[in-house]
């Protein structure tokens, strides 16, 4: 095999694909889609202690759970540190789950938070990265 035909295992693309890095696209933008709240926070152990660390504007990661026994369109929400906070409400998730299943990158940002007794209410904005 000639040198020109050999794959380059040390180039930029290799680094990006194997180190979970992303390169911003030239015209990349965040498109606001919807505002809602995080469902299921009362089922998250230690959510009260986490409350003070949750700040307005903090990014949230979304993960599809097609095998969720309660909701086939379930979308789990985690903070930037990977801590599970809850889910997009079942009443709101059908379109977002279809977008994610089609390969679209959705994410959220905390828009407000409040503590009502032992219940932590976290409102979020949902965005599409395009």
TrEMBL record:
InterPro entries xrefs: HIRAN
HIRAN domain ranges (all copies): 31-128
One Gene Ontology MF term: hydrolase activity, acting on acid anhydrides, in phosphorus-containing anhydrides
Gene3D superfamilies hit by this protein: 3.30.70.2330
UniProt keyword list: Hydrolase, Metal-binding
Organism superkingdom: Bacteria
SMART domains xrefs: HIRAN
Name under which the protein is recorded: HIRAN domain protein
């Amino acid at each position: 095999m000639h040198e020109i035909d050999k794959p380059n295992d040390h180039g930029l693309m290799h680094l990006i694909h194997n180190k979970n890095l992303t390169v911003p696209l030239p015209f990349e933008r965040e498109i606001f889609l919807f505002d809602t709240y995080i469902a299921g926070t009362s089922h998250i152990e230690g959510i009260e202690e986490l409350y003070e660390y949750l700040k307005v504007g903090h990014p949230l990661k979304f993960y599809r759970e097609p095998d969720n026994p309660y909701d086939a369109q379930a979308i789990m929400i985690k903070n930037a540190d990977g801590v599970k906070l809850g889910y997009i409400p079942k009443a709101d998730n059908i379109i977002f789950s279809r977008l994610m299943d089609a390969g679209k990158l959705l994410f959220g940002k905390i828009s407000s938070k409040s503590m009502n007794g032992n219940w932590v209410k976290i409102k979020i904005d949902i965005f599409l990265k395009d």
